[in-house]
Structures are given as C-alpha cells and as structure tokens.
C-alpha cells in the first residue's frame, strides 16, 4: 500500500522534502519551490531535466511512496541536524547548537548500546554546497565529553566560513562490534591523514 504524507508535507519546500542539494538547485532554476509547483509541471518537461527519476519526483510531491517499508534494517549511523532560519556567518552562532546535536546522537547510542568509530560534521552553505569533516578512531567513541569536543573541533575547522551556513549536522557511524574505548586516541588533527574535507553533491540526474 502506498505511503501517503500529510497534506502539510505536500506543500513544504522541495529542498525540505528532498534534502538533495543539487536536485533542489535544478528544481529552483525551473521555478519549482514547493510540492505544488512540482505537481503542476508536465511530466515531459521534468523528464527532459531529470530523466527516469522525473516520475518518482512527481509521485513523491503527491505524498505517495510505493517502496516497501523495511522495519528491521540495522542502522548504520545516528545523526542530528539543524536548519537555520537564516544563513549564519558568525562562528559562535554556527557552533552554538553543536553540543545539543551531539547530545541527541549520544542519547540514541546509549539507548541502543551501540557506539561508532567515526564522528562527522556536515555543513550546508547558502549556495547548497555541502562539506563533511570527519574523524575516525581505531576504537568506538564511548565518552560523551569526547564526542562533544570532537564535534566542536570539526565544525571549528571550517571557520571562518567562506559564506553563510544554513545547516549543521552531527553523525556517528562505523558501529563496532566490540566496544573498546577510544579515550586515548591521538589529538584530533594529528598529522596522520585523518583530517579531510569531502564535498557532497546530490546525485546528478
């Protein structure tokens, strides 16, 4: 049976629905800002720009999704993110919510009794470009204070931002079977090749 979203979701901004920055930018160039805009476009026009996925985008805009729900799929990560009401440029304002996001992730990890070896920060800029900064440890991060500090250090590595920031997210992944402590790891940005920035673009269609 198709999954139908509430009517409020059908009228929300397309960027909010898709979270795919590249696709959202293409939609905006076509004058598509909401689900209603997307539904009003001829399928033939959408196919010219989005190929085989055009029908899927239009179906999702109607609040329908025929994909089966997989309830027991194991989670590979735990994350929390915040979209700001306006683009932020001040470092203090950008990092202010990071500890709370780290707390959200930590609460889930503790409840599930699953801890990860990789901590990542995602930052989305005003032009929809995304950057991920991450740090991987040899053992699981099972120290709440350490998780907070790693997240803050990662987001601070992007300061000063080249442009306004509209979203920040925190993720823990690479869950380990054994829960060895990572308290005695090297400093965050030691010269061990662990520091990296990876631009993340939505899949071009």
Order of helices and strands: EHHHHHHEEHHEEHEE
Low-confidence stretches: 1-19, 183-205
Separate helix tally: 9
**Radius of gyration, in angstroms, nearest whole number:** 19 Å
Average pLDDT level: 78
Tell the overall outline: globular
- The structure class reads alpha+beta
Observed structural traits:
globular, Dna Ligase, domain 1, alpha+beta, DNA polymerase, domain 1, 2 domains, 7 strands, 205 residues, 9 helices, single chain, two-stranded antiparallel ribbon, disordered C terminus, five-stranded antiparallel sheet, 23% strand
Summarize the structure.
This protein is of the alpha+beta class and 205 residues long. 36% of the residues lie in helices and 23% in strands. The chain folds into 2 domains: 3-65, DNA polymerase, domain 1, CATH 1.10.150; 77-200, 2-Layer Sandwich (Dna Ligase, domain 1).
Walk me through what this model shows.
This protein has nine helices and seven strands. It is of the alpha+beta class and 205 residues long. 36% of the residues lie in helices and 23% in strands. It has helices at 7-10, 14-18, 21-29, 35-40, 43-50, 54-61, 91-95, 98-112, 144-156, and strands at 3-4, 64-65, 77-88, 116-125, 130-136, 165-175, 197-200. Mean pLDDT is 78; it is low at 1-19 and 183-205. It has a five-stranded antiparallel β-sheet with strand order 3-6-4-5-7. Strands 1-2 form a two-stranded antiparallel ribbon. The protein has two domains: 3-65, 5' to 3' exonuclease, C-terminal subdomain (DNA polymerase, domain 1); 77-200, Dna Ligase, domain 1, CATH 3.30.1490. A hairpin with a 4-residue loop joins strand 4 and strand 5 (130-136).
């Amino acid at each position: 049976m198709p999954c139908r979203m509430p009517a409020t979701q059908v009228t929300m901004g397309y960027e909010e629905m898709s979270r795919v920055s590249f696709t959202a930018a293409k939609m905006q160039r076509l004058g598509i800002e909401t689900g209603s805009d997307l539904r009003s476009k001829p399928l033939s026009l959408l196919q010219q720009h989005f190929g085989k996925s055009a029908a899927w985008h239009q179906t999702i805009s109607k609040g329908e999704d025929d994909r089966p729900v997989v309830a027991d799929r194991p989670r590979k990560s735990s994350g929390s993110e915040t979209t700001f009401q306006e683009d932020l440029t001040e470092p203090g304002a950008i990092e202010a919510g990071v500890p709370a996001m780290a707390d959200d992730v930590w609460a889930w990890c503790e409840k599930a009794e699953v801890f990860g070896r990789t901590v990542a920060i995602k930052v989305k800029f005003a032009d929809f470009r995304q950057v991920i900064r991450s740090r991987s440890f040899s053992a699981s991060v099972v120290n709440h204070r350490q998780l907070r500090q790693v997240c803050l250090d990662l987001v601070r590595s992007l300061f000063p931002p080249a442009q306004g920031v509209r979203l920040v997210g925190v993720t823990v992944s690479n869950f380990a079977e054994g829960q060895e402590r990572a308290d005695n790891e090297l400093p965050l940005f030691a010269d061990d090749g662990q520091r990296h920035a990876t631009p993340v673009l939505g899949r071009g269609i």
